[in-house]
Structure to design on (1091 residues):
């Protein structure tokens, strides 16, 4: 074995034996440093004859390369070992809980109102609003409910004292009350907007009624279409289309029953068919019927009271309970809990902020 | 505990507490699944005090057969065990519940319902046969109407020599089936007429009358004791029936106790009158007095049925109680003129959505009592006061044809994809909703009304209900916070560690309803955790963070808002503020709740609250969708830190704003990153450290330029009273 081969074996063995970066650096200096054994050999090349250099050159350069590579490889190996050692000390128990972000919720009533707005927007309905503290003209008289009408007694109305009466343009005092239904928004819309009109009006309404299934405040949604040539058939289609979209079921069946509301003529009560699934009523099918909507063709007197010509314009109106729709769709069974602000209930029945109803994603969540 | 033999050989165990329950008694047994008439309860197998009980032995009251509820029914010992009781008692006439809408007074009697059923194809309508009951002597009582507005017509007659007592079984059975308690033959006859024909009438004991019987206005303050035993004070707006000695009847609503018929009555005066519906409604509302008569009169009885009604009633009484009737005496004239309506049969399809042939429409209207002339002038029957115009005729036709025949017709649809319909305000509200929920707040919906005390804690409310359902629901809320605080308190009482609630709704002010978002944070902000070990509490800056985030979601450029005081007395005076757009427009108030306010709501510890006045946010209509061009600066920004000593009272915000404004060409951002008071800082001062970001435009800053900018920063700060720390 030549001297060079011997030297190479010695150095490679030393590299192999180096177990710290410092030891490896010492080996490097011994071999490749200014005074190193390999550097010394490289220096001898200059004094050699060309022939000799031709033989020795590749051997010495091979030695240098082998040593350099060996050191580099060992250095990488040592660094990896050190990193691994450090990482081993940095171990965290990943089963420990991460910081919790509180989960917020949207109330089912707001969610359902957004759903309704989305569905009706597709049918060309805008959302209209009106005051909750109303005068008796908008809540009753304009809706063809005169003071002595028995229907006024049907609404258990919350009134404000006489001194809160607000003067109308003629200086007559109008008694103020909490609206008993969203129907006054019909009047407010028709008196300020030229037909054709397509609106829905969701909002709070109030009746002096409180038991297991009634709360003195609840939510209604009103729908109104005023146009030319609108009849009961359009009403039926609109309600069917809305209920199918809302419950996302194609087997929604409606049953119309004659009824009476002072502000519609003819008046129609709408039942929707349900089936019983696991003891709960589910909209769709026709195992049974439940009343969900009041509706009818807007009374000529109402159209007239709003300053429109009832021989030109006609249309329909409907109203239903938003809380009720929410209960039917999402299965809550206690209306009072809607207004209790119980965190646990809100967490259970509330909706994720990102559950924004869309037609493409589905209006239900 | 009873063992009940139902006749099928399987005796049932029943728990019963009746005093008269005993071995061998034959009674009436309610089986599992049956409904108790008196309370609507459905019987099921239960355990009473740990003992299984199947069904129930029934009392008279439970079956609504009378008032006796002292014990269970005892039947004769020979009553056949196992036979259906309804069959045994011959009470198996089907009872049909009919819901009458308020416009259909004509159906508040069997006759009207029969007419409607016949028109719908169920059976044939047989008009009631009115017997001619001739009088054998002139009516001895003078009858008058001195109030033709309230009582246009008042007919009457006397029957002498009647014998009052229980009415015949057939009449009692029918009255009971219709939910009317039998009283005495005379009263039952008037009730029978009312239920059969929808026609209320009244029978006075003639012996108790004195002088002419007159329909007149009550005198202001006049009183009457009604048949229900209660005293009523009347006003001059009310019509009464009176004689020389006083008021005997609140006209059309309830008779008086004094002149009612009793067992001893021998001579009666029958009254059949027509009262103006509006007057009856007003009187009934004013007295808060409901009755079967009122519910019919205020809806308007058939004005053409006075004579027939009186004849039927006379006949009934003579048949059941005997006696000799006088001639009929009539005062006034009922409004019997009939309305006519010009009808066009095409309206049926145009409004009702069903195309019904003209002859069918005619037949329907005729079957309901309308007269149809060849030119389609339709004359309305006197009993249909609700019919006003052609739309009502359309309703008559479509309801008889059946609303099932209405075919769905799509609403005309605008071309293309549906256009957005939400107003700017509505879009804003939706964004705030979603943003609040996304930030971990739970949306509550609270009552719009508050107890007086809670409204007062928030400056009081303008709108106070005249007839609240309870004192806790009296004042319309002037703020969203009371409702949220009460909800927070209920949650805390249930053991919640942390409450994060928001509500979006209206506040009710003197002149308007203002859309507002309210936030309440209470309890722990973060629970105890393994990394820090401690729970963190909310502070006023949490409210500030929520307010700024929600205003930003609503599209407000929040950096430009001013932080000022005057958040309201319900806040901690030193830990609250308002955010304003300009000095006047308050967009939000927030902070720690005043401990006194928290106490009003029984809340302990720090409670953080905020209100955002959504309707104060200016609505910006977007000018198209195009954004301004994005041109990133060519050179990187550099930052310089400054530490200042400032007087304690100096608002850090003022210092930051002053620095921001001192060199707008170069200063891109200013951020406060440290605040320190204590060792090394003189008393009465604090150290504020501020990072200033400088944005060079086309070439990097030279040392001189940087020095000049630094000098401007220090000068601006010193004007605020801040000294650069050495």
């Amino acid at each position: 074995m030549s001297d060079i081969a011997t030297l190479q074996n010695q150095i490679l063995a030393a590299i192999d034996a180096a177990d710290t970066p410092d030891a490896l650096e010492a080996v490097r200096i011994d071999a490749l440093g200014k005074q190193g054994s390999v550097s010394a050999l490289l220096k001898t090349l200059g004094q050699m004859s060309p022939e000799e250099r031709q033989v020795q050159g590749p051997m010495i350069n091979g030695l240098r390369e082998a040593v350099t590579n060996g050191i580099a490889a060992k250095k990488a190996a040592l660094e990896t070992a050190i990193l691994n050692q450090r990482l081993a000390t940095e171990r965290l128990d990943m089963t420990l809980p991460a910081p919790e972000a509180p989960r917020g919720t949207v109330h089912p009533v707001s969610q359902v109102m957004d759903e309704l707005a989305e569905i009706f927007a597709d049918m060309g309905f805008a959302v209209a609003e009106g005051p909750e503290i109303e005068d008796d003209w908008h809540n009753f008289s304009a809706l063809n409910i005169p003071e002595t009408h028995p229907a006024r007694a049907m609404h258990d109305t919350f009134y404000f004292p006489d001194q809160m009466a607000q003067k109308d343009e003629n200086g007559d005092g109008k008694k103020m009350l909490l609206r008993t239904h969203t129907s006054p928004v019909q009047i407010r819309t028709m008196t300020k907007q030229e037909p054709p009109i397509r609106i829905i009006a969701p909002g709070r309404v109030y009746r002096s009624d409180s038991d297991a299934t009634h709360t003195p405040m609840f939510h209604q949604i009103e729908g109104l279409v005023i146009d030319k040539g609108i009849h009961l058939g359009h009403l039926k289609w609109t309600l069917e289309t809305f209920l199918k979209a809302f419950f996302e079921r194609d087997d929604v069946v409606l049953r119309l029953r004659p009824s009476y509301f002072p502000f519609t003529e003819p008046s129609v009560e709408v039942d929707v068919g349900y089936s019983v699934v696991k003891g709960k009523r589910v909209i769709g099918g026709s195992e049974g019927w439940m009343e969900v909507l009041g509706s009818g063709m807007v009374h000529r007197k109402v159209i007239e009271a709003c300053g429109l010509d009832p021989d030109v314009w006609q249309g329909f109106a409907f109203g239903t309970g938003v809380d009720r729709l929410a209960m039917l769709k999402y299965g809550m069974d206690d209306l009072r809990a809607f207004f209790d602000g119980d965190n646990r209930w809100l967490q259970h029945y509330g909706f994720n902020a990102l559950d924004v109803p869309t037609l493409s994603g589905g209006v239900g969540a | 505990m009873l063992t009940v033999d139902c006749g099928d050989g399987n005796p049932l165990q029943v728990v019963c507490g009746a005093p008269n329950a005993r071995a061998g008694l034959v009674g009436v047994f309610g089986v599992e699944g049956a409904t108790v008439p008196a309370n609507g309860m459905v019987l099921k197998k239960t355990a009473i005090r740990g003992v299984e009980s199947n069904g129930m032995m029934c009392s008279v009251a439970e079956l609504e057969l009378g008032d006796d509820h002292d014990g269970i029914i005892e039947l004769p010992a020979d009553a056949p065990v196992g036979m259906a009781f309804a069959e045994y008692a011959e009470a198996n006439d089907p009872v049909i519940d009919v819901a009458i809408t308020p416009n259909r007074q004509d159906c508040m009697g069997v006759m009207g319902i029969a007419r409607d059923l016949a028109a719908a194809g169920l059976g044939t309508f047989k008009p009631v046969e009115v017997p001619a009951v001739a009088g054998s002597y002139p009516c001895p009582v003078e009858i008058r109407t001195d109030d033709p507005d309230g009582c246009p017509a008042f007919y009457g007659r006397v029957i002498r020599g009647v014998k009052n007592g229980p009415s015949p079984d057939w009449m009692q059975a029918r009255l009971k089936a219709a939910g009317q308690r039998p009283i005495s033959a005379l009263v039952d006859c008037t009730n029978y007429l009312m239920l059969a024909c929808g026609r209320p009438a009244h029978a006075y004991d003639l012996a108790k009358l004195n002088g002419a019987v007159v329909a007149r206005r009550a005198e202001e303050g006049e009183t009457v004791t009604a048949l229900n035993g209660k005293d009523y004070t009347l006003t001059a707006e009310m019509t009464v029936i009176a004689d020389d000695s006083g008021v005997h009847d609140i006209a059309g609503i309830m008779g008086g106790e004094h002149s009612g018929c009793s067992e001893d009555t021998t001579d009666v005066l029958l009254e059949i009158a027509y009262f103006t519906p509006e007057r009856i409604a007003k009187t009934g509302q004013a007295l808060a007095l409901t009755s079967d008569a009122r519910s019919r009169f205020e809806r308007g009885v058939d004005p053409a049925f006075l004579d027939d009604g009186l004849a039927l009633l006379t006949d009934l009484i003579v048949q059941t109680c005997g006696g000799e009737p006088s001639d009929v005496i009539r005062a006034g004239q009922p409004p019997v003129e009939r309305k006519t309506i010009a009808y066009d049969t095409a309206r049926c399809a145009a409004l009702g959505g069903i195309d019904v042939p003209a002859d069918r429409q005619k037949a329907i209207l005729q079957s309901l009592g309308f007269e149809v002339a060849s030119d389609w002038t339709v004359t309305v029957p006197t009993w249909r006061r609700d019919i006003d115009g052609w739309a009502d005729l359309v309703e008559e036709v479509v309801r008889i044809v059946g609303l099932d025949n209405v075919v769905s017709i799509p609403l005309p649809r605008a071309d293309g994809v549906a256009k957005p319909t939400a107003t700017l305000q509505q879009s804003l509200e939706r964004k705030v909703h979603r943003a609040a929920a996304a930030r971990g707040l739970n949306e509550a919906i609270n009552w719009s009304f508050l107890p007086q005390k809670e409204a007062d804690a928030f400056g009081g409310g303008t709108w106070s209900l005249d007839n609240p359902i309870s004192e806790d629901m009296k004042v319309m809320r002037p703020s969203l916070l009371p409702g949220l605080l009460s909800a927070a308190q209920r949650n805390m009482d249930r053991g919640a560690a942390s409450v994060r609630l928001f509500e979006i709704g209206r506040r009710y002010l003197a002149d308007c309803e203002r859309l507002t978002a309210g936030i309440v944070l209470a309890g722990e902000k973060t629970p105890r955790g393994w990394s820090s070990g401690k729970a963190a509490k909310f502070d006023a800056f949490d409210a500030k963070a929520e307010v700024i985030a929600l205003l930003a979601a609503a599209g407000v450029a929040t950096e430009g808002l001013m932080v000022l005081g005057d958040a309201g007395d319900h806040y901690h005076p030193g830990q609250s503020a308002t955010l304003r757009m300009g000095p006047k427009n308050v967009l939000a108030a927030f902070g720690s709740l005043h401990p006194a306010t928290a106490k009003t709501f029984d809340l302990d510890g720090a409670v953080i609250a905020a209100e955002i006045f959504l309707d104060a946010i200016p609505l910006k209509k977007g000018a198209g969708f195009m954004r301004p061009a994005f041109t990133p600066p060519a050179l990187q920004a550099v930052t310089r830190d400054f530490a200042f000593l400032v007087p304690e009272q100096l608002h850090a915000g003022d210092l930051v704003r002053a620095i921001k404004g001192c060199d707008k060409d170069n200063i891109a951002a200013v951020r406060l990153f440290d605040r320190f008071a204590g060792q090394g800082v003189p008393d009465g001062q604090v150290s504020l450290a501020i990072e200033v970001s400088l944005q060079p435009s086309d070439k990097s800053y030279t040392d001189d330029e940087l020095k000049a900018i630094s000098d401007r920063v220090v000068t601006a700060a010193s004007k605020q009273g801040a000294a650069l720390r050495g």
User: Anything to note?
Assistant: Chain A is about 40% helix and 20% strand.
